[in-house]
Ribonuclease HII
Amino acid sequence: MNAPNLELENNLIKQGYKMIAGVDEVGRGPLAGPIVASAVILNLKGSAPLGSAPYLSLIRDSKKLSPKIRTELDVKIRETALSIGVGVVETDVIDRIGIGKANKLAFLLALANLKVAPTFIITDYLKLTSSDICLFRLLKLPRTPNITPLLKNQMNIKFGDAVSISIAAASIIAKVHRDKMMGDLHTKYPEYGFNRHKGYGTREHLEALKIYGPCAIHRKSFSPIRQSK
C-alpha cells in the first residue's frame, strides 16, 4: 500500500476548505486502559507541497513506525500544526457505553479540544452523526462541542491513515499520548507490564491476568477480562 499523501487535503483546499482536521484513534482493541483520539489541523498553505515541510513525507500510520520515529514526528507535528485536540475516554465509560460509542466519543472530544475550528473533517472510517453528539449529554460532560454544522462537511475513509497525511498525523499524536498514559499507569500497576504491551492481549498480559486478576483499568466488558475473574 502506498504511503499517505496530501491529495485529499489539496482537493478540499481547492474547494475552499482551509481548516481540515484529520481524526484517528488508538486503543480500540486493548484489554486495559483508555481509548484515545486526536484531531490534527496541519498548516497547509496553497497546494501544500510536501517540500514545504519535509517531515510530512515521513508520516505513516502510527502502527508502522518505531517508537523513536513516532516520538520525533509527534514533536514535529506539535511544533507546526495549526491546532491539535486530544480526546480520552476512560475504561469505566467504555464499559458503560461500549467500545463503538466510546470511539465516537473520543473523536468528538478531540474535535472539541481543537483551539481552531475546522471547516472540514476527515476521519479514519467512522462517521459522526447528531445522535453521537448526544453522548455528551448522556454522560453529563461539561460542554458540548459546536460541531453539528460540521456533520455535513466530513469524509470517512476506510484505512484513512494509509491515505491521508492528516489522518496519519492524528494517529501518531493519539498513539504517543496513549503510550505515555499506559507508561504512567505501569507505575501504579507494575505487575501487568503495561509499559510493554500497552494493555493489548499479549501472552505476558494474559499470564498476568491469570495470576493477579483484573485491576481497576481493565475493561470489564471485554470477554477475556470477564473470563479472568
Notes: DSSP finds nine helices and five strands in the chain. The two ends are 41 Å apart (CA to CA). The CA atoms of residues 33 and 181 lie 8 Å apart.
